[in-house]
Amino acid sequence: MNLDLIWTDREIAILEEFYPYASHSELEKLLPNRKKNAIVTKASKLNIRRLIYRWTEEQLSLLKKHYPSQTNNEELLALLKNHSFVAIKTKAKNLGLKRGSYIPSCKEYTARRWTKEEMKILRLYYNSMEDKDLLMLLPGRTLMGMKHIAARQLKLGNKFKMFFKRGKLWTNFEDNLLSKNFNVLPNEELIKLFPGRTHSSIKARAHKLGIKRDKGTWGSVGPYKPWKQKEIDTLSKNWNNVSLEDLSKLIGYRAEEGLKKQAKKIGLPPYDNERFKKQKK
């Protein structure tokens, strides 16, 4: 099969536009499905020639003037026509030029050094101003970039949670209720005791109060909660003598299906549903 037929009109258009002056690495990025040899071969068949632009004295003067300055990459490319950005960087490196600090006009070029003025703004307002307002003082900077510099380099701390909406304050009644039940009730029952509180906030409050759960106490009811010998003894003693609802409370809020499975596992008779229905009546 002739692989040359696979080239699309779009790929050929890219080749005709960029092959004359783009570097091979840039061409491979523009044509991700083509390797260097395939690109060169196709260009040769289409009679597209590479144009080698020599650096003029005027261009070298512009490079020396603007590369170390605050002229951004887009403006630099406009000043030095016929030269790719890779060619500009290579020439600057050969001349011993270092890139100046600049504000990019697009997101493609965001890697630049933080200036002393930007660092000063960050120190002054990082912990007292909202992120969106602070970013307006730092044009060209991203939220993640700002937080990275503040936390890692300036040691200003992490304020990701600073402007989150705070929940309602915990009352003394809730704290006492949590102290009594955190190591007794599973998560499902705890959430019922604290309407409006999430499981995460309940755990966080318990941690703040220094309340801990025993290693044998699981956070959820269900088949994965290990049975203790004390629970098995209670189950055997009260099986078919009390309702499943009362038995669940005696054992520690086990699910009814979990009670039945464990009873079957230890050889107890089936649960008598009819008996407790009559008692309720």
Query: What percentage of amino acids are in beta strands?
Result: under 5%
Kindly report how far apart the N and C termini lie: 84 Å
Q: Quick one: overall form?
A: elongated
Q: Strand count, sense and closure of the main sheet?
A: none
What is the CA-atom radius of gyration, in angstroms?
A: 35 Å
**DSSP strand count:** 0
Helix/strand structural class: mainly alpha
Quaternary form: single chain
Query: Approximately how much helix is present in the residues?
Result: 40-55%
- SSE string, helices as H and strands as E: HHHHHHHHHHHHHHHH
Indicate the mean pLDDT.
77
Low-confidence stretches: 160-166, 219-223
Number of DSSP helical runs: 16
The gist of it:
With 281 residues, the protein is mainly alpha-helical. Helix content is 52%, strand content 0%. The protein is elongated, with a radius of gyration of 35 Å.
